Amino acid sequence: MLVSQGMEQAPLFSICIPAHNATGVIGECLASLARQSCESWEAIVVDDASTDSLDQWCAGQDVICAERLTYYRFDENGGPFRARRKAFSLARGRYVICLDSDDELIGSDALALMAEAIERESPDVLMFNMSACVDGGDSIVDYGALGLAEGAVDKGAFVEAFLSSYALNNLATKALRRELVGADGDEPKRRLKMCEDRLEVSGALARAESFCLLDRDLYYYRPNEASTTHARFELDYCDQQAYVERVVWERLGGAVGSRDGQYRLLLSAWAHDMEALAQDRGVAELAACLEQIAAEPLFVEAMGVVGTDGQRAERATSLRLLAAGRVRAAARWVRALVRLKGAAKR
């Protein structure tokens, strides 16, 4: 179902808001748009099969002018990746910004500051920062790898930093030219529960030519205990990571001379995942999971190229045991690590 009032003139920004059962929080999200001094924006809410009458709330809301709001509803839940893709397809702005339904823009000049940077640099990708404080401060994203606080960023430097870190993944800290996102034929071949942002951003980076950094807190990320995963860590998450990294390398590998940074990132992630898998599994079940990680071609390839270079000592041991085929020893070692770390927190 599509309900679109439509602005007469295409705006500078399309604010894309995927939403699921968000009636309790989306009002504050939209209010953060209403207070912006820059008025060249539209809001696109894509309702991912909510069951809390979000459609009625959007139809009756008076937080923002009706002509600024486009509302679309899916009848079946498909996850935030699909919801964002739908929002991109409905967007008319020159740039798209992704805003979660329980988050906000900071202050009244967030869009104005972005607009000034866009007018000055005309980038394909504008990066900014986020904070877990409603008024900003204590920035979440570390842009240190880029070596500057503001201004134009070399594509090669950005891609290299992106490949070797998860710090630059977030869609919420970027304003992207609309034509960079949601390309036809660019959909993942599987439904993802993690790494969706990294996959989407990598496609935009592959098509982008110019980048600009505005290292200021413009996005309020609302800490939400309910959204923090406490579910059992599944082995499929490791497989999803490998799938995404293969696609990322296919898209971006040609822009850098070495894959070593990505290999180290993946090995660090898998060492972390080994501990997450150990949280509620016995040795035998954990060993069965680790055996599948050890058989992953990217794991074998990464260990063969970079080994445990750059890994913390205890995680290097986990990786070496696994690479040597000592799966049960790796399982016992990882379980011991988890117990020790748990005891240290108490």
TrEMBL record:
Q: Has the keyword Transferase been applied to this entry? A: yes
Report the source organism.
Parafannyhessea umbonata
Check the record and name the PANTHER family matching this protein.
GLYCOSYLTRANSFERASE (PTHR22916), UDP-GLCNAC:BETAGAL BETA-1,3-N-ACETYLGLUCOSAMINYLTRANSFERASE-LIKE PROTEIN 1 (PTHR22916:SF3)
Keywords of the record: Transferase
* Domain Glycosyltransferase 2-like: residue ranges: 14-137
Example GO molecular function: hexosyltransferase activity
Coiled-coil region list: none
What superkingdom does the record give? Bacteria
Tell me what this protein is called.
Glycosyl transferase family 2
CDD domains reported for this sequence:
Glyco_tranf_GTA_type
Pfam families with a match to the protein in the record = Glycos_transf_2 (PF00535)
Signal sequence span per UniProt? Answer: none
